[in-house]
Amino acid sequence: MRRKFTTKGTWRAALSSRGALIAFVLWVMLGGSIPVAIRFSNLELPPFWGATMRLGVAAAIFWVFVLGRRAAVPTGRALIGTVLYGAIGIGASNAFAYWALVRLQPGLASVFLAFAPLLTLFFAAAHGLELLNWRSLVGASVAVVGILIVVGGGLGATLNVSALLALAVGVACTAEGAVLYKLFPRGEPVATNAVASTTAAVLLAGLSLGLGEKWSVPAAASTWVAFAYLAVFGTVIVFYLYLFVLVRWSASTAAYGFVLLPVASVAISAWLTGEVVTISFVAGAAVVLAGVWLGAIRSSSRATAPERATTVECVRC
Fold first, then answer.
1. Are 203 and 95 in contact (CB under 8 A)?
2. How far apart are CA 30 and CA 268, in angstroms?
C-alpha cells in the first residue's frame, strides 16, 4: 500500500513563511510611525542625544527580557557579528540619517530608502551570501520608481550635497548591517537586540558628547508620550520584528520593508494629522506595492514553493 504524507518540516516551513509575512507587515506599519514620533520627540531633544536615549531605553528593555528569559547572550563569532550589526546597521546608519534629516526634506530621504533593497542585494552578492537575480533587480527598480512618483512633486530645488552623501552612507550602513547579521552565526533574537542596541547607544552617546550636545530630558508631556512610543513600539518591537523577518527571509528580500516605510509614514501622517493624500501618492504607492510583490513576496513564495511541495512516499509491503 502506497500513501503520501506531508513532512513536519513542510508544515514548519509554511508556518514560518506565513509568520514572517505577518511580522513583515507589522514591522512596516509600526516603522512607518517612527518619523511622526521622532518629529515630536526632537522638539526638545538634540538629534544624537535623542537617538542615544531611544536606543538606551530599548537596550535596557531588551536586557530585562534577556534576564527574565535567561536567554543566552551571543559569544564567539556570534558576538562579533552582533556587535558589527549594532555598530553599523543600527548605530552608524542612525548617526548618518539623523544628521542628514536635519538638513533634508523627508521626501528626499524616502527616495534614498527605496535604494535599500538594491544595495542589500549588491552587498549580499559581494559577500557571496546571495546570487543576483532578475526578479529582485526588477522589483527593486519598480519600487524606486514608485517612491519617485510619491515624492517627486515636493523635493524642492535646493539640495545639500553633504547631507545627500550622508544619507546615502546611512542607507548603505543599513544594508551592510543586514548582510553582516546573516553572515555570522546568529543568537537568540532578544539577546542579539540587547547587545546590538547597547553597542549603537554607546556609539551615539560618544558622538553626542563629541559634538557638545546638551543632555537633558523632555519637559512637555506630549514629548514624553512620543518618546515612550518611539522607544517601545518604534524600537523594541520594530527591532524584534525586523530580526524575525531577517532570519526567515534573505537580506535583500527583507530590505523591501524600507521601501514601504515612506508609504506607511505618509498614510499614518494623513490619518493622525490630516495631511492631504494626493493622486501621485496613491499612484506611486500602487507602483511600490507592485515592486515589493515582485521582488520580495513573490520571490519568497517561489523560493519556498518546492519546500512546501516536498512529500515523502511511504511504501508498505
1. yes
2. 10
**311: which strand partners?**
6
Instruction: Please report the pLDDT score of residue 13 as a whole number.
Output: 44
CA–CA separation, 199 and 91 (whole Å): 7
- 13 burial (CB, 10 Å; 0-12 / 13-18 / 19+) is middle
> What pLDDT score does 313 carry?
32
Task: Kindly report whether the global pTM for this prediction surpasses the value 0.90.
Answer: no
| Pairing outcome for strands 2-6 and 311-315 | antiparallel
Instruction: Classify residue 130 by its DSSP letter.
Output: S
Residue 298 or residue 242, greater confidence? 242
Burial class (CB in 10 A: 0-12, 13-18, 19+), 306: exposed
Burial class, 225, CB count within 10 angstroms (exposed 0-12 / middle 13-18 / buried 19+): middle
How far apart CA 184 and CA 82 sit, in angstroms, is: 8
Q: Which residue has the higher pLDDT, 241 or 110?
A: 241
Burial (CB count within 10 angstroms: exposed 0-12, middle 13-18, buried 19+), residue 76: exposed
CA distance 144 to 26: 22
Amino acid at 181: Y
Close Cβ partners of 283 (under 8 Å, ≥ 6 residues apart): 149
Our count of domains for the chain comes to: 1
With contact defined as beta carbons under 8 Å apart, do 11 and 315 qualify? Answer: no
Give the separation between CA 213 and CA 196, rounded to whole angstroms.
Answer: 23
User: Taking residues 36-65, what's their average pLDDT?
Assistant: 85
Q: Show the domain range for 138.
A: 2-315
> What is the rounded CA–CA span in Å between residue 172 and residue 204?
18
